[in-house]
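Worked example 4.2. Below are the chains of a multi-component assembly; read each line carefully before continuing.
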Amino acid sequence: MCVDFTDINKACPKDSYPLSSIDALMDSAFGCRLLSFLDAFSGYNQIMMHPWNKCKTTFMTELSCYCYKVIPFRLKNAGATYQRLMDRVLAPMLGRIPSVCR
Amino acid sequence: MEVRGHIELRMTFTDGTTSRTVSIKYLVVNAPSAYNILLGRPTLNRIRVVASTRHMKMKLSSLEGTVITIKSDQTEAKKCYENSLKSKRGVFALTTQPPKEEGVIRAKIARERRSKPAEDVLEREISRKMFKLGKSLGQKTQDQITKVIARHLDALAWSASDMPDIDLDLCHRLTMDPQVRPVRQRRRKFNEDRRQVVRKETKKLLKAGHIREI
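Applying the procedure described above to all two chains together yields the following structure tokens:
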């Protein structure tokens, strides 16, 4: 199941927060003997929507209307917010150990 | 002459101002030749080339409809011709070696670039949760990893309920163009099967706390 966010996505300007470049990740992994990967469990869904913006994600079903409390998939700029959050969380370690790849 | 296989390359024809790129399939042979690439008649016909040996020029149309003229260099052409005379003729004969399968060369290129995946994985139970560990790690490393995982089990999630909330100050804010008018989309109508899926999914999302009713 997915919600059609075309209209809301059209109304939002693009967040140009830089996403990690795959080439840079590959380069930083060079020479490491062991690489470990962690997969975030539905990563976007762990980030809350701003209280004022929740109603904008409202969708209808036959039973009722619902709105998202967390970032839904297919929403524009979700990747940028995710990257920003991850960069902040891992800031003390970034570049030294972990890299975030969306 | 040894036939090595096929390779598909993207070729760009250009005269400096306009260009056209086409994907061309080449037969790769291991043979001493003055030319790196020989364009066959099927390709020349496909991209509708008009070639003139007398003028040492080749014309083809770009996708916009303009004409791309490719000129040859006389000295270079002469050198190529002389080289082709120098190489002993008659030694070119197809070897009995069967041509390697199509795509072999491409696969080889890809293999050289990519790093190899770890070997097989084996399942291991840690505190009643299943994990997959690489077989190549060795017993000692495996035990160490198991210990670390067992200690930090609360940091891993199997379902939405395992995930604690993230601070609200790190929430997703929609920046919207204030001039855009709100849109109300029409409700979509589904058949019974789809409706069932929607009911199930919304129930799941509600339970996980990802959505709420308005």
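Take a moment to check your reading of the output against the notes. The interface with chain A takes residues 156-158, 160, 162-163, 165-166, 168, 170-177, 180, 183, 185, 187-188, 195, 197-199, 201-202, 205-206, 208-214 of chain B (CB under 8 Å). The first strand of chain B starts at residue 2 and ends at 14.
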